[in-house]
Specification:
single chain, about 70 residues, mainly alpha, two-stranded parallel sheet, about 10% strand
Length: about 70
C-alpha cells in the first residue's frame, strides 16, 4: 500500500521526486516492519525522533504522533 501511495503521488505530481520517508506511529517501533518498508520502497527512511529528538526513543515518539492523530480526528 505504501508503494502504491508513493507511485500515485509521483504520478499526480510529475515534477516532484520523493526520496525520503518518515516512519511515525506505532509501526515505527516494529523493526521487521521498518526493514520491510526500507527494502520495498528503497528510499531514505527517517525515524519519528528526527521530528522530536526530545522524545528519546521511537516508542515514546510514536505515542506522541498517535496522540496527535487522535486529537486531529476528534
Amino acid at each position: 500500500e505504501l508503494k502504491r501511495a508513493v507511485n500515485f503521488y509521483s504520478f499526480s505530481n510529475r515534477g516532484s521526486e520523493l526520496a525520503d520517508v518518515w516512519i511515525c506511529g506505532g509501526g515505527a517501533v516494529i523493526e521487521p516492519l521498518v526493514d520491510a518498508i526500507n527494502n520495498e520502497l528503497g528510499m531514505r527512511l527517517h525515524s519519528c525522533t528526527d521530528f522530536i529528538p526530545e522524545a528519546g526513543d521511537n516508542a515514546e515518539c510514536a505515542m506522541i504522533f498517535e496522540a496527535a492523530g487522535i486529537a486531529m480526528n476528534v
